[in-house]
């Protein structure tokens, strides 16, 4: 979680943690007879007092999340609408773009987060200073109107019934503005009681799962549609403008000339913006680059020197201007105008493209990782923004078709709208200044924007979304970093921040072994595993060696994600290593390494038995102190820790056999619900001080570590700065638990927990697209996709050609999207009487299958199976086991986009 930089430690020390722990008074009214003298009493209510009607509503499909002007819900909204690893460009609640974090400024300790600032927070007992990496934008969210770095927007002129009306597409000009919250496509609608038109603005960057190349463009597509809802014709003009963005940060008066040049192409009209420097040193600035504004209309009128403010009717009639110049320090804006006669009930649609190209990484980044010295991946692909806009324009049909196809596929589901929004939204982290892809092809990221370098293993291992949506990125991260820049070949240790650290982290090591197995499963064949097995084997050997006494429970003190070196046998680390060993066993069996398979099998067997015997206290799993150190150092000990059964959670994500007893696992999860989940964190954080504000009074969440036994020194004898973490609600960890609860059948608890996170990020409170933990757009939050995976009961093994679906609710009529190694589509099932129908409709790419596995509904008999690939009947056999049915085809099937596999059991 933290880098070697100790600045975050200072924050927690400023929270007077030592004073709090030594002198805090216990609360009255505890149900326990014994009162600790030096530590606050556990005060999370057992009865969550949730409204049954509200809980019931969580299962319903509902309506898409929509934020409205009339409810004052638009100010904080900022949906990333740029390509992966191309900086941050937000689309605001009223459709205007803002933030423009494209200038390579993010830098640890200097320019962190989306709005680097310090704010004040009242924690219940005192007022504290909160920095950007500690949750400033959670306490005081950035407001779009305050962060409009570049001037950009649209205006309409409508001539109707002898009147001429001009309106800009912004919040103030319309009676109602609505924002539909479906990543990666934002849809903004504008209506006015005095006009018979509805205007829609859609914004997105090309986003095609499994195709990182086409999804990583430094560009935004903005589609303006004007619907004439009257029975009379009208004249409509659309004016789109954008400021020349070059040199916005560093250019000084006299340092160069901004030029805006109109270019007409066969299928578009374009304005190309650049800065011609007088001083060569300006070319090294992080904001030296180019931008472009284009419209997919060759007849549009360019206004290269547009400066008609405010926009009025006459602005649309200005004569065309092909070229414009201005001093580097001056604002220089260009515009494009499209006009048309619109028939009754007709729709005018115009597609605009905004592109940027700033290929000078921050000097600090160049120091952190040598790959940054070669610039960015998009900088290698394109020489300037004009080429980017040209690529988008020339491939416009395919890019928009495939993006919209995914958008439709993701939302073609029986699962609730809110659930689909929250579990997918965090993949947008890849389209912010939190992640980069360098010219070498390497993927690299902060933990949160500008904070904690090095694509940290013990953070990114939670982030399931990347591997399922863009598996290429994770495979390259495994080979180029975990077995490359961060690999110690002599020992097998994986340095948890590669070049930016010198130590391994035990949870990062184990999690990365599990990720190797996942990346193998998300591959079309065995090439990835076979080529990397020797390195993986070495990494496994290192992990196994951390079990000093040979009982299958790692006990070597080593760094973990809570930024401390804990002593003893720690349930969540022990369990994670057991799961990793089980994944290693599966990989060893597949490559024919019998010796390693045997070693791992023995480790898993011993580890599971000992963990269940020695680390389970009858209700939940704990941390057994080191025999020599005792509880001298920081640890979770007898407390209820959020990640205590994380290994079993990981096992569900990759379809491994159980690594922990189900009854004990359920008991642990129920303890987390009982002791750590609260619908209102206010009373808890008022007494348990030192944490950062990722949930505040009036909001609910799952607290990291609680002390249900009311021990006086629950976290050890020595007070250290990391203890502040234990009192927080960090959404990435919460998503991990929600995913696990869903997998184990605790559906209601999983939905409630996910919904509380969703509501903490409601547009009326803060930006719905920015889950925060140690800076903005925190990578761990991409764990949310894991909850979607387990809701579908989805398992997949590409090389074996196996797939499974076992939905957790709405089983009689279920439908949801899925992604596999080389394709994606929609799965659906219907259960009627003794008949079960299962269908896989492939929408994109291809899918190779040998076997499908489904849950048997109730106690139904299954006397027969019928398999059809399109109109072709496929011979198959089936086998029932443990409430599941496996359907195996007599030959390997490969079907492609547009085809459907139908399996009927009955």
UniProtKB/TrEMBL annotation:
Entry coiled-coil feature ranges: none
Record domain Glycosyl-hydrolase family 116 catalytic region: where: 507-785
Protein name, entry field: Uncharacterized protein (DUF608 family)
Matching SUPFAM superfamilies: Six-hairpin glycosidases (SSF48208)
Taxonomic source organism: Dyadobacter fermentans
Residue span(s) of domain Glycosyl-hydrolase family 116 N-terminal: 78-397
InterPro entries assigned to the protein according to its UniProt record, in alphabetical order: 6-hairpin_glycosidase_sf, 6hp_glycosidase-like_sf, GH116_catalytic, GH116_N, Non-lysos_glucosylceramidase, TAT_signal
């Amino acid at each position: 979680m933290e880098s070697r930089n100790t600045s975050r430690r200072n924050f927690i020390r400023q929270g007077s943690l030592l004073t709090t722990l030594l002198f805090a008074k216990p609360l009255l009214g505890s149900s326990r007879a014994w009162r600790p003298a030096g530590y606050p009493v556990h005060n999370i209510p057992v009865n969550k007092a949730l409204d049954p009607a509200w809980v019931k509503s969580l299962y319903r499909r509902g309506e898409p999340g929509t934020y409205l002007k009339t409810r004052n819900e638009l100010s904080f909204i900022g949906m990333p609408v740029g390509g992966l690893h191309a900086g941050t460009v937000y689309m605001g609640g009223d459709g205007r773009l803002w933030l423009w974090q494209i200038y390579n400024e993010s830098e640890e300790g200097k320019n962190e987060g989306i709005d680097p600032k310090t704010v004040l927070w009242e924690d219940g007992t005192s007022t504290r200073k909160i920095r950007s990496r500690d949750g400033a934008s959670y306490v005081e969210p950035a407001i779009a109107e305050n962060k409009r770095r570049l001037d950009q927007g649209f205006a309409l002129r409508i001539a109707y019934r002898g009147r001429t009306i001009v309106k800009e597409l912004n919040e103030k000009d319309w009676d109602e503005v609505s924002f539909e919250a479906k990543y990666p496509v934002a849809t903004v609608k504008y209506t006015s009681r005095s006009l018979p038109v509805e205007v829609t603005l859609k914004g997105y960057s090309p986003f095609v799962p499994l195709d990182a190349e086409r999804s990583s463009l430094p560009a935004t597509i903005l589609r303006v549609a004007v619907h004439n809802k009257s029975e009379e014709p009208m004249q409509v003009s659309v004016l789109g403008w954008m400021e020349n963005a070059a040199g916005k940060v560093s250019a000084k008066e006299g340092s160069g000339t901004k030029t805006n040049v109109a270019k007409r192409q066969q299928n578009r009209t374009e304005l190309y913006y650049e800065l011609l420097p007088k001083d060569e040193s300006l070319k090294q600035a992080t904001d030296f680059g180019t931008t472009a504004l284009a419209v997919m209309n060759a007849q549009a009128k360019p206004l290269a020197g547009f400066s008609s403010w405010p926009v009025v009717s006459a602005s649309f009639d200005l004569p065309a201007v092909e070229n414009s110049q201005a001093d580097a320090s001056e604002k220089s804006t260009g515009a494009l105008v499209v006009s048309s006669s619109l028939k009754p009930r007709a729709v005018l649609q115009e597609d605009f493209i905004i592109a940027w190209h700033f290929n000078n990484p921050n000097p600090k980044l160049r120091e952190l990782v040598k790959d940054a010295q070669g610039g960015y991946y998009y900088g290698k692909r394109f020489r300037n923004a004009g080429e980017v806009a040209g690529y988008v324009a020339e491939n416009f049909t395919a890019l928009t078709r495939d993006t919209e196809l995914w958008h439709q596929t993701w939302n073609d589901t029986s699962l609730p709208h809110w659930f689909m929004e929250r579990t997918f939204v965090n993949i947008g982290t890849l389209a912010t200044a939190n992640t980069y892809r360098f010219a070498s092809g390497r993927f690299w990221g902060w933990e949160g924007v500008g904070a904690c370098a090095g694509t940290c293993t013990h953070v990114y291992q939670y982030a399931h979304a990347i591997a399922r949506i863009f598996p290429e990125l994770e495979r390259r991260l495994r080979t180029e970093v975990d077995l490359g820049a961060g690999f110690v070949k002599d020992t097998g240790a994986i340095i948890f921040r590669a070049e930016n650290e010198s130590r391994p982290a035990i949870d990062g090591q184990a999690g990365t072994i599990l990720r190797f197995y996942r990346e193998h499963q998300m591959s079309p064949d065995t090439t990835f595993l076979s080529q990397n097995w020797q390195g993986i084997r070495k990494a496994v050997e290192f992990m196994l060696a951390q079990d000093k006494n040979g009982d299958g429970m790692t006990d070597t003190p080593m760094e973990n994600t809570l930024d401390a070196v804990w002593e003893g046998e720690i349930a969540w680390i022990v369990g994670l290593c057991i799961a990793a060993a089980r994944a290693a066993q599966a990989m060893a069996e597949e490559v024919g390494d019998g010796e390693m398979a045997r070693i791992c099998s023995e480790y898993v067997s011993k580890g599971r038995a000992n963990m269940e015997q020695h680390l389970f206290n009858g209700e939940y799993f704990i941390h057994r102190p080191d025999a020599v150190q005792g509880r001298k150092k920081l640890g979770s000990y007898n407390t209820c820790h959020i990640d205590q059964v994380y290994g079993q959670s990981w096992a569900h994500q990759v379809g491994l056999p159980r690594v922990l007893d189900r009854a004990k696992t359920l008991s642990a999860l129920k303890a987390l619900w009982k002791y750590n989940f609260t619908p209102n964190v206010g009373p808890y954080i008022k007494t348990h001080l030192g944490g950062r504000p990722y949930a505040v009074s009036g909001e609910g969440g799952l607290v990291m570590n609680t002390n249900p036994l009311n021990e006086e020194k629950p976290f050890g004898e020595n007070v250290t700065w990391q203890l502040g973490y234990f009192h927080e609600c960090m959404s990435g960890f919460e998503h991990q638990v929600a995913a696990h609860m869903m997998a184990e059948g605790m559906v209601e608890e999983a939905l409630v927990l996910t919904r509380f996170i969703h509501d903490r990020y409601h547009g009326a409170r803060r930006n719905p697209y920015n889950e925060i933990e140690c800076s903005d757009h925190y990578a761990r939050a991409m764990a949310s996709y894991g909850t979607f995976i387990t809701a579908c009961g989805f398992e997949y093994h590409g090389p074996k050609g196996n797939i499974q679906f076992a939905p957790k609710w709405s089983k009689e009529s279920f439908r949801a999207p899925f992604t596999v190694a080389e394709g994606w589509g929609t799965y659906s099932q219907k259960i009627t009487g003794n008949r079960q129908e299962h269908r896989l409709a492939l929408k994109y790419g291809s899918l190779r299958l040998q076997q499908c596995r489904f849950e048997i509904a109730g106690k139904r008999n299954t006397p027969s199976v019928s398999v059809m690939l399109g109109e072709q009947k496929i011979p198959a056999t089936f086998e029932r086991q443990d409430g599941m049915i496996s359907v195996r085809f007599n030959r390997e099937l490969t079907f492609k986009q547009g085809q459907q596999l139908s399996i009927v059991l009955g």
